[in-house]
Amino acid sequence: MQVFNVEGMSCGHCVKAITQAVQAKDPAASVRVDLKAREVGVESALTAQQVVEAISEEGYAVKLI
Predict the structure, then answer these.
(1) In a 3-state reduction of DSSP, which class is residue 33?
(2) Sign of the CA dihedral with 60 first, then 12, 36, and 51 last
(3) Which of 2, 11, 17, 25 is the most exposed place for a label (fewest CB within 10 A)?
């Protein structure tokens, strides 16, 4: 599982937006969001860069931990 630090997440809508953004690029991806820790765990065939791009397109600042 790849873990990313994502700034700007605050609610269920953020969780849904991030999950849908990643799953749009890999429908089989497993996405775990921890709002309090500001972390997103992704299990996917996507590269870390592809995940960063997908989340960034939603307007979040993201980096691989």
Answers:
(1) strand
(2) negative
(3) 11
**CA torsion, points 29, 6, 38, 2, in degrees to nearest 10?**
40
User: Contact at 8 Å (CB) between 50 and 62?
Assistant: no
The CA distance from 38 to 4, in Å, is 8
Residue reference for tokens 């994502």: 6
Which H or E element spans position 22? helix 12-25
Q: What CA–CA distance (Å, rounded) separates 50 from 35?
A: 21
17: its two tokens = 């937006």
Cα distance between residue 19 and residue 6, in whole Å: 12
